[in-house]
Specification:
Layout: H1 3-20, H2 73-88, E1 90-99, E2 103-114, E3 117-128, H3 130-137, E4 142-147, E5 151-155, H4 158-163, E6 169-173, H5 188-193, H6 199-205, E7 211-218, E8 221-230, E9 236-242, E10 248-257, E11 260-269, E12 285-287, H7 288-294
Parallel strand pairs: 6-12
Antiparallel strand pairs: 1-2, 1-11, 2-3, 3-4, 4-5, 5-6, 7-8, 8-9, 9-10, 10-11
């Protein structure tokens, strides 16, 4: 495996864990796509990290103005959902993410949130896309991601571990993700630390066209379906399904990244569940920033 492939794969793992952690979609007007490591070459590439434009406005360089803050009865209903979901503190999560032709994955586990930081553990399975094929060739078809307030840890397979000193975990300190090549990582730290289920509600509260679709049955529960478009002209859509306790049961976000359409569907249940995320042994952990530096990143 070349140094370029190692660098690209390290970035691919970062993006995978970020997407699985329920990061909201963003527009396609952000930093230029292409090789996220700036390394060039013809080896299989990792997906570009999603642009990190603020959710209430379009991406940098766009002429669109921020959406007006939502007001009235709809806003009151959504704020009740935001408060209830925020107070719950944790939930079991099942999600699927499709990122154009680059990557599709599913994630299952439990996440907790406090002060908009996430903790918890997800099992992530690659289900398709060019990046998934690359990871499969490196002996990784699924991995565990552990989220802590300052960093997250992503597990890799034996074959890839052999290329990084035999270590099976990569540590990503959130601030270090800002250093991804070409500005791709700008805002990654803030995006990860604010990735919570009620973030979708905050997105809807920044929209100006939220509507109540109606009542539907979602996983055997009676829910109210809300839908809106976020981000001015970028046409990011957010749909949520809320039960009679004002808790999210389902969320669907659709938007675009540099590599194509990004769609994520998540289901939530067992609110208040106990959540744990242990740091892997230091002797079996490689630091993302040091790893890229050692590979010429």
């Amino acid at each position: 495996m070349t140094g370029t492939t190692v660098r690209r794969t390290v970035v691919a793992v970062a993006v995978t864990a970020t997407l699985a952690g329920l990061t909201g979609c963003t527009s396609s007007d952000g930093p230029a796509g292409g090789d996220p490591t700036g390394s060039g070459g013809s080896t299989p590439s990792a997906p570009s990290a999603p642009s990190a434009a603020p959710p209430q406005s379009s991406a940098p360089g766009s002429a669109a103005r921020p959406s007006p803050a939502l007001t009235g009865p709809v806003a009151d209903a959504l704020r009740a959902v935001e408060r209830a979901t925020g107070r719950a503190g944790s939930a079991r999560v099942e999600s699927t993410t499709v990122m154009g032709s680059e990557l599709s994955l599913k994630a299952v586990g439990a996440l907790g949130w406090h002060d908009d930081a996430i903790t918890g553990t997800l099992t992530i399975t690659y289900t398709g896309g060019t990046t998934a094929e690359t990871m499969r060739r490196l002996g990784t078809t699924a991995m565990e991601a552990r989220y802590l307030p300052d960093a997250y840890y992503a597990e890799v397979g034996d074959e890839f571990a052999d290329r990084v000193g035999g270590r099976h975990w990569i540590k990503y300190v959130y601030e270090d993700l800002e250093d991804l090549g070409g500005g791709t990582g700008a805002g990654f730290a803030d995006q990860m630390r604010t990735t919570t289920p009620h973030q979708a509600v905050k997105l809807l509260l920044s929209a100006g066209d939220v509507r109540r679709v109606g009542e539907e049955e979602t996983r055997g529960r009676r829910t109210t379906h809300w839908s809106g478009t976020v981000g001015g002209t970028t046409a990011q859509t957010v749909d949520i399904w809320v039960d009679d306790r004002d808790l999210l049961v389902k969320k669907v976000e659709r938007g675009r990244t540099e590599t194509g359409e990004l769609t994520q569907t998540a289901y939530y249940g067992d609110y208040g569940v106990a959540v744990s995320a242990e740091r892997p042994p230091a002797a079996d952990t490689a630091d993302f920033k040091e790893l890229l530096a050692s590979q010429g990143g």
